[in-house]
Amino acid sequence: MAYLTLRGINKIYPNGFHAVRDFNLEIEKGEFVVLVGSSGCGKSTTLRMIAGLESISRGDFYIGGEKANELDPRERGVAMVFQSYALYPHMTVFDNLAFGLMLQGADDDVIEEKVEKTASVLGLSEYLERMPRELSGGQRQRVAVGRAMIRKADIFLMDEPLSNLDAKQRVTMRSEITQIHRQTGATTIYVTHDQTEAMTMADKIVVMKDGCISQVGTPFDLYFEPANMFVAGFIGDPPMNLIESRVINGRPDIPDNSVDLRNIADSELLAGIEGKEIVFGFRPEAIKLKAEADSEHSFRMTSTVELTELLGDSTNVYVDMSGIKSILKADPHVSPNIGEVFEFYIPYDSVYLFDKQTQKRIRTSEKRIL
Ligand code: ADP
Fold first, then answer.
1. In the chain, which residues have pLDDT < 70?
2. What is residue 138's predicted lDDT score, i.e. its pLDDT?
3. Taking all residues of the chain, what is their mean pLDDT, rounded to a whole number?
4. Which residue has the least CA distance to atom 27 on ligand 1?
């Protein structure tokens, strides 16, 4: 059995709201698992059930193979870092870090040693005598992480810990938390609505939607092998282009292009989707321009430029294909004029097909060229 096992976990709040449904997950010791999804999808509820702050309505939760549904939060070996990092404002950084140990009645020299070690890992050594108001947002967040770390918990639970920071601090703290995880090796479950945080920090991502798990996988899996339209649209920035169309004679009815699904799907699959509504997907960054395209193994698309955004390392090109809108990511030197006809190529192995009704991926991998 895995270190942490959640089996058929459900949460029904007293008002009858079913916030988490049939949640199944195994977490290995030392893993960094990120629960990601839009606001309200049940991430915090799941985390709080793991912490013991919220009861489990149905299902089984195990820590180290032992049933833990009824365990008191203090007996679970968890430390939690919340979004609002609530430091004690009238205490120095040292005392904020030491407070938990003081409550446990630890000896002064033990406290001092642990505080200094934690502060050193977190780059806080020179701030130990400061008050929280004398720190930047990022430093305060580090103190909050330190308070959780110092308790030597086996399991770290983090609920949107970076959401109060500005964009730059978030990027810095992201890599700091990843490094701290590497140093401590503590099993970590991290909640965020930000797919970039999930992609950059996780060993394993759990994408949630409406209280259910949509897909579990490594960042690589979710990006390259999304199981459904929700994950395809959620992971990646800008998101995957998803175009609804009906398949007629093996071709989606998207105007003015060379898409022919016979190139990427076998006859059985083609027969199954003929006449049906599917969703044709491709990532903005997967497209090629004529000069660099392998035109033998790509679909040619014709579009009209509506807007361009130069980002520095790339240009986002917003295009229209007879009413169908897409975003393309191109080289920063590419700067087409608005209204210009823009031709681009989608390599066969960058095409994703989905069943419009079930929203599930239709696998075409037989003919993928990798
Ligand atoms: P997330 O962390 O993904 O934003 P939450 O787990 O906080 O989502 O909430 C999931 C859903 O459960 C939301 O619709 C929220 O309104 C609802 N919810 C959260 N707490 C309670 C509660 N105590 N009583 C009833 N509904 C709740």
1. 83-85, 365-370
2. 81
3. 92
4. 13
Residue 139: the pLDDT is: 86
Give a yes or no: residue 151 inside a domain.
yes
> Which residue, of 229, 259, 278, is where some domain finishes?
229
Q: What is the CATH number for 37?
A: 3.40.50.300
42 lines ligand 1 (CB under 6 A): yes
370 within a domain of the structure (yes/no): no
| Same-domain check for residues 224 and 247 | no
Please tell me the distance between residue 45's alpha carbon and the centre of ligand 1 in angstroms.
6
Query: What pTM value is reported for the model?
Result: 0.91
Does 220 sit in the ligand 1 pocket, CB within 6 Å? Answer: no
Which atom from ligand 1 is nearest to the alpha carbon of 46? 6
Q: What are phi and psi of 61, to 5 degrees?
A: -125, 130
pLDDT digits (tens, 9 = 90+) for 195-244: 999 999 999 999 999 999 999 999 999 999 999 999 999 999 999 999 99
Answer yes or no: is the C-beta of 43 below 6 A from any ligand 1 atom: yes
Ligand 1 centroid vs 19 CA: distance in angstroms? Answer: 6
Domain span including residue 267? 238-362
21 lines ligand 1 (CB under 6 A): no
Which of these, 84, 83, 66, lies nearest to 75 by C-alpha position?
A: 66
Pairing of strands 187-192, 32-36: parallel
| pLDDT number for residue 84 | 63
What pLDDT, on the 0 to 100 scale, is given for residue 367? 44
The pLDDT value given to residue 56:
98
Q: Do 64 and 8 reside in the same domain of the chain?
A: yes
pLDDT score recorded for residue 366 = 43
Task: Tell me which residue has its CA closest to atom 21 in ligand 1.
Answer: 13
Closest CA to ligand 1's atom 19: 45
Question: At which of 211, 229, 247 does a domain end?
Answer: 229
CATH, residue 305? 2.40.50.140
Q: Which atom of ligand 1 is nearest to the CA of 41?
A: 3
